[in-house]
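REVIEWER CHECKLIST
Item 1: Sequence provided? yes
Item 2: Single chain? yes
Item 3: Sequence as submitted:
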Amino acid sequence: MKITEIEIDDSQTGYYWVQIYTSNKKEAISLKHQIFDDQVIRERLENEIIQSKKITARSSTPMEITFQSFLTKKLESILGDDKS
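Item 4: Structure as written out by the authors:
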């Protein structure tokens, strides 16, 4: 898939529109699905990170704390949010 152009439009309503131009309708539909699928995956990963941090904060078991901390770091690295 080749993206030929990307435009950002200010609609004067406080929202911005992103227009992505591809070479055909099939690629455009595929890209739209990919963007929404990526968004859903990101939300699920973010929720799992939050849950893992809660478990770590509430746990008194060293092994569980170690595992959840490791899991949190791995999930953050997948999102590109690794702060270490």
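Item 5: Key structural point noted by reviewer: The radius of gyration is 19 Å.
Item 6: Recommendation: ____
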